[in-house]
Design a protein that fits this description.
The chain is about 40% helix and about 20% strand. The chain is an alpha/beta fold. Nicotinamide-adenine-dinucleotide binds next to helix 7 and helix 8.
Length: about 500
């Protein structure tokens, strides 16, 4: 009898969940009407605060609730987060593009589905045991407590959801200080996690964020005693600030991924893979191909094949014109020196929009701008995050590897290679020392898209955790049972 009633309860829960999903699924047309950092289409977000100290208090309360949960309960919430993310991927994708002006809606939708499907949950936490003459020692993966997470504008909601799944799986709660230019999209994701928690029987407020995140609110978070771990995903500035905080930190920093194509590669496939990867979400992902080093014998064929895949070749004069638009002069306040920085108005924009800025009008079928340059060209040296791909000719594999390693700037982030020569592949992989090395595939294979391996949007090169997951957000605790508990 009790089994039947349990079944009925489960069925009712499933129906309620589906109804709640339907209510949450707004008509995409209405996305354009009403969104802010605190609400969306008349619904107020849960977990959004104006004061960082209050946000941290709320996250501390949430952590106490998570501490009481079984692993099964955490997993139930994670399942609900995955479901809501799948259902509302299109909303967050469109919100992200509308709010930031960057990227492509369809690609952002796919990124959310990747997060929902391939971010590891509690199964990622593995207990280890050591037994011997003196008994048993267990090492378990425990939560840190309240984690402070700083998130980027390039993958805003993707990072919030991916971090939330991994951090909750490890038993933590989270305070987010999102990028101010993507706060509405980020806070939509914070609210989604809280809705999922409530639906699955967890606390109403599980993760929190700010309505107006600033460098000041980030600073409060970085020095607050309740924050036991800081996680940041962004460029060099935030990594430097978080590493200087004196707290344990996981930092995911900038990249400038080079691609080498040698004479043994399948050139047709290499050209398509490179353009597919480089143009994914208009080059916003930190792992995306940023510059190509092509060996002399195959360079012209590679360019021709790229042109067949939606690439538009510009000459060196046009490349200089484009450089003067997509990079701007800024005077460094400390040194007084003028330096070139990327024009934020051009980051993540469509290729045809960028070309129009130098008077070249093409259709939407053009998805990438390619140009032949020297190694020293600013397009090679700067992380543009635009669908602009410089191609540098290399006389041989030695020169290609030397230039590619230099262009990566020691970020230890990501590099790619198209080759069938295992010696060349091994030599470049060894020399470049990146966290991710993708062979014969588009860059997004590196985060599990159409490839093996889990997904993450926080790739921690500077601090060494690599592709973060629940185990990165857990600390080890040891329990020793002396002289007993062996079974042999
Ligand atoms: P960004 O560096 O402008 O901002 C990232 C976050 O850091 C934002 O929330 C911002 O408000 C905050 N921030 C910046 N300076 C700070 C400081 N001094 N103190 C505290 N917070 C600070 O980056 P973005 O433009 O949003 O994202 C693009 C950059 O991030 C690129 O360099 C890209 O390579 C990198 N990125 C890396 C990864 C990764 O996994 N390694 C993922 C996504 C983006």
């Amino acid at each position: 009898m009790s089994e039947i009633s349990n079944l009925q309860v489960a069925q009712i829960e499933e129906i309620v969940r589906k109804v709640l999903h339907t209510i949450g699924n707004a008509n995409p047309e209405s996305i354009k009407k009403d969104f802010s950092s605190t609400g969306y289409n008349g619904r107020n977000f849960v977990g959004i605060y104006s004061d960082m100290n209050q946000a941290i208090d709320a996250a501390s309360k949430a952590y106490r609730a998570v501490r009481e949960m079984s692993v099964e309960q955490r997993e139930k919430i994670i399942t609900a987060i995955r479901e809501l993310t799948r259902n509302e991927a299109h909303i967050m994708a469109e919100l992200g593009v509308r709010e930031t002006g960057m990227g492509k809606v369809e690609h952002k939708r796919l990124k959310h589905l990747l997060v929902a499907d391939k971010t590891p949950g509690t199964e990622d936490l593995v207990t280890s045991a050591k037994t011997g003459d003196h008994g048993l020692t267990l090492v378990e993966m425990a939560p840190y407590g309240v984690i402070g997470s700083i998130t980027p504008s390039t993958n805003p909601s993707e990072t919030v959801i991916c971090n939330s799944i991994g951090m909750l799986a490890a038993g933590n709660s989270v305070v987010f200080n999102p990028h101010p230019n993507a706060v509405a999209t980020s806070n939509y994701a914070v609210d989604l996690v809280n809705r999922a928690s409530k639906m699955a029987g967890g606390p109403e407020v599980l993760v929190v964020s700010m309505d107006k995140p600033t460098l000041e609110s980030a600073a409060i978070m970085q020095s607050h005693p309740a924050i036991k771990l800081l996680v940041c995903t962004g460029g060099p500035g935030v990594v430097k600030a978080v590493l200087a905080s004196g707290k344990k930190a996981i930092c995911a920093g900038a990249g400038n991924p080079p691609v080498i194509v040698d004479e043994t590669a399948d050139i047709k496939k290499a050209a398509k893979d490179i353009i597919d990867g480089c143009t994914f979400d208009n080059n916003l992902p930190c792992i995306a191909e940023k510059e190509v080093f092509a060996l002399r014998p195959i360079k012209d064929e590679l360019i021709r094949e790229m042109q067949k895949n939606g690439a538009y070749l510009i000459n060196s004069i046009q490349a200089q014109q484009l450089a003067s638009v997509v990079l701007v002069d800024v005077t460094d306040k400390k040194t007084g020196k003028v330096k070139k920085v990327i024009n934020r108005e051009c980051v993540g924009r469509d290729a045809d929009v960028l070309l129009a800025k130098i008077g070249i009008n093409v259709g939407k079928d053009i998805r990438c701008i390619i140009c032949e340059t020297d190694f020293d060209h600013i397009f090679v040296q700067e992380e543009l995050m635009m669908p602009i791909l410089p191609i540098v000719e290399a006389a041989n594999i030695d020169e290609a590897i030397e230039m590619a390693v230099k262009a990566e700037h020691g970020n230890r982030h990501t590099a790619h290679m198209h080759s069938k020569n295992i010696d060349n592949l091994t030599r470049f992989a060894t020399a470049v020392e990146t966290t991710i090395f993708v062979k014969n595939a588009p860059s997004y294979a590196g985060i599990g898209f159409n490839a093996e391996g889990h997904a993450t949007f926080t790739i921690a090169g500077p601090t060494g955790e690599g592709l973060t997951s629940a185990r990165s957000f857990a600390r080890q605790r040891r329990c020793v049972m002396a002289d007993s508990f062996r079974i042999i």
